[in-house]
Amino acid sequence: MERIGEIVATSSNSLTAVSFTLHQPPALGSLVKVEEGRRTVYGVVSFGTTTGLDPGRRVVRRSTEEVFDAAIYAEHPQLEKTLRTEFAALLVGYCGPDGRVHQHLPPQPPPLHYSVCTCEADEVVRFSQQRLYFRLLLAAVGELPPEQLLAAHIRETTSARGDDQEWLAAAAREVAALLKGDYDRLMSLLQTIEPER
Amino acid sequence: MPLDFAVIQPHIARMAAQAHTQSLADRLREACELLRSVDTDHLRQVLREREQSDRIPWLVARPREEVGAAYPPPLPCSDFSVVASDGSVIPPDRHSPLRFFVLNTGLARLTYGQRPDAHLWARSLFCAGEEDLYINAAGRRIPVEDARLGLRMALEELRALFEAAQEAPANGPVLALRDGSLIFWALQNEEEAVVRHFLPPILDSLERFQKAGIPIVSYISYPGAQDVANSLRLLVCGKDPPHCGQCAEASTEERALCRALADFRDQALFLRHLQPGQRSALFDSTSAILDRYGEQRVQFFYLHTGEEIARLEVPQWAMQDETLRGFLHAAVADQCRRGRGYPQALIEAHEEAVIPSTEHRLVEQLVEEALAAQGVVYVRSAKDRSKRERGI
């Protein structure tokens, strides 16, 4: 488990966190968690962005013929302090003091300023054993089309589970059932989780 | 819309037309030619003679190098740090029942080279004590406000800047930058008690930089100074002492240039004289307050930042040391390049210093709450309340 960010906005269905490392939000669709006493809240990373710390300051061009990309950050060390990377996560479940995993929205939002952490592979395996939370992801209203977010989550989880093709097939069947009335969205999702892609 | 733009607009157009006439452009070219070709020894001699015979009616600059010279920046060293400070104040509020002020010093320390790093922070000071709010002048209380508050802010900036400079990484030289002038000429209009209150600690701060070998540079963007133009004017004028009111004898041509020089800022001359990155000759300011600066007497030069002409004011010990002078010239030119025309460290220090209006109001609210806890109701002036309410 690694602390990767601090919650700066929280609600019943999502959180926003400032990433501890510039330009490195957790992967889109990956499972993250917030530990709060004896409760652990789980979320799926739904968005990432890097902007100026002060909304009143405009990001300006810094590159020259000789200085570009990573060299810009050595040439302008203040950028590390004046830019920030944020990510959002949709809440998909929690684990209470009894150790049971619940795949529905937590009773309370996670507290502001608490740490967001990565989940180890065994935790991802444990949480994704059931897939009831796919409905929460598909119903989400956010910056990305929900089926693309769910596709990213399925790719990340398959990989975290050690390229678990059995799980991938079960997830695809689950998605087919959820989107049976929407052929276009279903196909757009399935095309992005096919193993050969 | 409170302003009647129909009335204002024609005046703006007339003003703009007058500011850019062909004859003014010709005069500026002449003035630049004079700057390029002036015999520096002759100018020094004229300045000496005029100073001996009478007071010169204008603030002039004494050249320390060839007036027409232009120096390119030396190559900056690879590892160095720049620390900068800038200040922002919440001044005492006449409409408030309590007298206090808040000083916020924004600080930036940027390190370049092998291990680039940045540290940005601010230091806040809440001042409500008698010794902060008033200067004691033989029993009389002189309030610290307006220009005097500016001096207090400058002192805090210098102190914080020195501490920040000392914490800079040891691998490479350190440049200390602050916004504004190091020539605190506002003191000339103050009574002796005020001068004695502010000047010794300011000079003491500058001396600490000297002992640490850290060049301290005051940076003035788009300077309004005319010291160099005024010196050239003495050459054109030829009167001893100059009496502008009775100047019918001078030839029309000379008088036109003399009058134009009275309006030109130094920056207008040096913008045509210098190439990006170059600095002008070094000058002594003749501001009267500098006679009390001793070893910390301030000298200045102009720098073409790539976007404009900036004025850099530096204590003489740093200007006279060739290594320090070269370093500060190169480092400030480099800062302006990184900051797209204005030193990056000063940009960041300013951002840290700014007190947003929401925080200003929060301070008032905290004072209100603290008073309420003591059972006192915070009553502002009726005028202030009406301005905040803006009832219709």
SSE-based structural type of chain B: alpha+beta
N/C terminus separation of chain B: 16 Å
Q: Kindly give the count of domains of chain B.
A: 3
Q: State the low-pLDDT regions of chain A, or none.
A: none
Beta content of chain B:
15-25%
* Alpha carbon gap, first and last residue of chain A: 29 Å
**Total helix count of chain A?**
7
Average the pLDDT over all residues of chain A and give the rounded result. 94
Order of helices and strands of chain A: EEEEHHEEEHHHHH
Strand content of chain A: 25-35%
List the quaternary state of the chains: heterodimer
| CA-based shape of chain A | globular
CATH architecture of the largest domain in chain B: 2-Layer Sandwich
Order of helices and strands of chain B: HHHEEEEHEEHEHEHHHEEEHHHHH
Range of helix content of chain B: 40-55%
State the strand order across the main sheet of chain B. Answer: 1-9-10-11-8-7-2-3-4
Major sheet of chain A: size, sense and barrel closure? 6 strands, antiparallel, barrel
Biggest sheet layout of chain B:
9 strands, mixed
Total DSSP E strands of chain B: 11
Q: In which range does the helix fraction of chain A lie?
A: 25-40%
- The third-level CATH topology of the largest domain in chain B is archaeoglobus fulgidus dsm 4304 fold
Model description:
The complex is a heterodimer of chains A (197) and B (392). With 197 residues, chain A is α+β, with helices and mostly antiparallel strands. Helices cover 32% and strands 27% of the residues of chain A. Chain A has one domain. Chain A contains 7 helices and 7 strands. Chain A has a 6-stranded antiparallel barrel. The longest helix of chain A has 15 residues. The model of chain A has no long low-confidence stretch (mean pLDDT 94). Chain B is of the alpha+beta class. Chain B has 14 helices and 11 strands. In chain B, strand 7, helix 6 and strand 8 form a beta-alpha-beta unit. In chain B, helix 2 packs across helix 8. Chain B is globular, with a radius of gyration of 24 Å. The model of chain B has no long low-confidence stretch (mean pLDDT 92). Classes of the chains: A alpha+beta (197), B alpha+beta (392). The interface between A and B is medium-sized, with 13 and 14 residues.
